[in-house]
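mind reviewing this fold:
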Amino acid sequence: MARDLPVEDPLIRMQRDLKRAQGKKPEDIKWGMVIDLAKCIGCHACTIACITENSLPPGVVYRVVLEEEVGQFPHVRRVFTPRPCLHCQNPPCTKCCPVTATWKNEQGAVVIDYNKCMGCRYCLVACPYGARTSDYGEWYTTDTPDSQGKLFGRKAAAKGYESRPAAEYGRKWPERGHGSPIGNARKCHFCLHRLAVGMLPACTTSCIGRSTIFGDRTDPQSLVFEMIGSPRVYRLKEELGTHPAVYYLK
């Protein structure tokens, strides 16, 4: 059995790919992701890692894992499809924003400026993948009672987790409850703040089946470039001409 194991963990190779990409000019990098559905077991580890990394409130999820039952009895199985923002290269969401708060950056990632976003939610409707959500300012601890003189309760829980400033885009946002990103459209951003310091996206490092591959899709030496060349590859709703930077393997 040991002979069937890979020579190295794909994360090690992706880390090397990331280091090599950091040596390029920013405009020469084009981030991409490949999700191998044959390896995804629907554990939702990527969803939880993303929520924790970005301090996401109730109702805001960047990394949904869709579940589907296929086949006919007795040959029935479940298929799990992680669906982050697909970072389209022809994104319909950016074209409808009346204040240009969302756009595609030089590395191919679709981003949002929370200070510009006015919460009209046009982009939520325009996204054909349902990859955007709106932050309505909700709290997990809303109905949690406080107990005098104790180390638990709403205030302690909120201070320890929910009120933490979001780390997104490498900018210093205010504590939750004091402005953006409350009231804004929110979505996956390929963990750009982690990439800037040489770390892979949280969903990639937390995937126990190594089904999520990430890197510079223009680098012929990268694992993500290799996976995009697989005959198993496809993209969601390709007929729309959105050209997603997230690929899937059947």
About this structure: The mean pLDDT is 92. The chain has eight helices and ten strands.
